[in-house]
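Limitations

Structures in this collection are predictions, not experimental determinations, and the ligand pose is part of the prediction. Treat each record accordingly. The example that follows, with shikimate-3-phosphate as the small molecule, is included so readers can see exactly what is and is not provided: the inputs are given verbatim, and the output is the predicted complex.
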Amino acid sequence: MSSHGAPIPMTSRACGALTGTAQVPGDKSISHRSLILGAMSVGETTITGLLEGQDVLDTARAMRAFGAEVTDHGGGSWSVYGVGVGGFAEPDQVIDCGNSGTGVRLIMGCMATSPISATFTGDASLNGRPMARVTDPLALFGTQSVGRSGGRLPMTIVGAAEPVPVRYVVPVPSAQVKSAVLLAGLNAPGKTVVIETEATRDHTERMLAGFGAEITTEITDEGRVITLTGQPELKAQHIDVPRDPSSAAFPVCAALIVPSSDVLVPNIGLNQTRAGLFTTLREMGADLTYENEREEGGEPVADLRARFSPDLKGIEVPAERAASMIDEYPVLSVVAAFASGKTHMPGVKELRVKESDRIDAMKVGLEANGITVEDGPDWWTVTGLGHGNVPGGATCASHLDHRIAMSFLVLGMATQRPVSVDDGGPIATSFPIFEPLMGGLGAAITRSNG
Ligand code: S3P
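Predicted complex:
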């Protein structure tokens, strides 16, 4: 990816109707967790549909460094021979998690209660992100850490030799923090309790149960109280990774704003903790339907059908929905630019500490393309210009952030003039087939500023 190479400038320009079927790649969150839980299990975990984006490949490499045997069989089919809970070896090299906050935070958690040390680093984006949100709760288990000022990477974690179980109220809505504490709790004796006041994606809880851990979730006045019994023997599983709703967001949103489009995005998980964008788009008047609704692996799944929606209207996005669509706000802000009226997005402080400050990155780029954006510490508002009226014409900085790059390329599909990004390289972290997939639907994305 380009954080380790030359920037890849890309340009997107208005195109004819987007049509056809978009088979988006596997879910990034579930892909990381499949490799990590496979590495902590006994026996051979087999995985199909793994997202082979750079973030996940970095996690695969890290699991090998901790002693698991991880094999790529081609075509998204992988296997992991795990070392069992508490069986991690000490890596003899620095663990480079690239661009991935999920990778580094979950891996810190899963090694934090073993008597080993590991040093973590990443690219310029990851090395600027806050890690104290994970190392603070890990310290309660007896884990030590030393990093750069502000709790930033590179950072060494010294695992607790005699961990104690913890009870922790997660202070920010973060599935990564929740998951790091649960993974650390696996190798602590007794019951580790994690409480979240706002529900975040629950893949870790669901998958831990699937791998045989004793884990319960109770909804109480305090919030979601998750109780994990430590030191289980996790049993190897077969995981068929569902397709990623966060990647589906891009072809869906593009179809809504490009005239005459009609795109089918099959097999998308509609887990309530992930599907907030689709609810929001429908409230804005999007022609977005769920076809062939069914259950797969205990999760609601549907084929999404998105058609051009000329009469989108700006709305108030409920703050309590933020966690269920946290990665989708950048592309939502693009759709909001083509709506009539204002779209107000409150309760989104976490957007400031993602791969980039996503409010700032989108505000600067949208404004350069003729759209008015107002913002505060935890909210932003986009004033839509209506279909056909968005000027475009600017080059936007992607700030080593895949979702910022893809959002601006979607913008350029329906603006009066083309929209460029300075670097599309980071797209490979989560959606390596973005260009051919969007091109196959009819999008006009080129690799130059021309
Ligand atoms: C993720 C959690 C979210 C999300 C990220 C993936 C996960 O981060 O933004 O892309 O897989 O747990 P936070 O936990 O920081 O909200």
